[in-house]
Amino acid sequence: MTRVVLLAFAIYAFHLCAFAKPSNGETITLAVGHDHQSMLDNRYDVYRANWDALKMGLEDLGHQLEASAAPWARAKAYVQSGQLDGLFIAARLPARDKWAVFTDTIGYEIYGFFERSTFTPPAQIYAGIRLGGEDRVLSFIPPEQLLYVPTAQRGLKLLSDGKVDRFAMSYGYGQYLLNTELKNMQSHIRFNPENSEIRSLHIAISKQHPNKERVLQILNQAIAHSVAKGYYQAAMIKNKVPKRMWINGQSEASLP
């Protein structure tokens, strides 16, 4: 009987060790935009799906995920200085690799111009979100040619009021705003797919971060684990993310 009890205890202990989370888990703090919680609550599709999938992947590996919200340019500055672990979600924009290293791809997005439904070319005033540094929303528009605004909401409002002719941003985020808090502008603002560019989505980590290799390793492991476990695919389906925006969506990526 004693041997049976000891064997049972050994099996129980093995299972505890096999399935317990590592004791050396870390907290990964990512910079996000000022409306992070709103984007989760209102289900901005690719954003909510990737946040949920990453969170589950990290937690399975014994880590925690936290958000630090701020206006976009400030959030990026916190990451660049190494104060925060990464920028979520970060498109691989032109010149961004001068200051950042990127995780494995977590999706795709289309970048281009929103304009008024009644707009007729040529455009005189272009606007875009203030990204800071040399980051470019579109490769063919030099930063100095854009009127910068602190938030996409502000830019779309200027567009709606006729103060600017075109506003450069991602298609997905723009449509999310027009379907939620800026719904009153939906009928007279449209996305123009002409000259749009498809960008891969990642988490950007500053080259100045003192532990960038470790942070990159943890995030890439969590991304891979999330895909292997089906968390990523389930989150994409639940949040109705178009297939062209998935990790394997590059072959299907097309203009809306």
From TrEMBL:
<feature type="signal peptide">
    <location>
        <begin position="1"/>
        <end position="20"/>
    </location>
</feature>
<protein>
    <submittedName>
        <fullName>Amino acid ABC transporter substrate-binding protein</fullName>
    </submittedName>
</protein>
<keyword id="KW-0732">Signal</keyword>
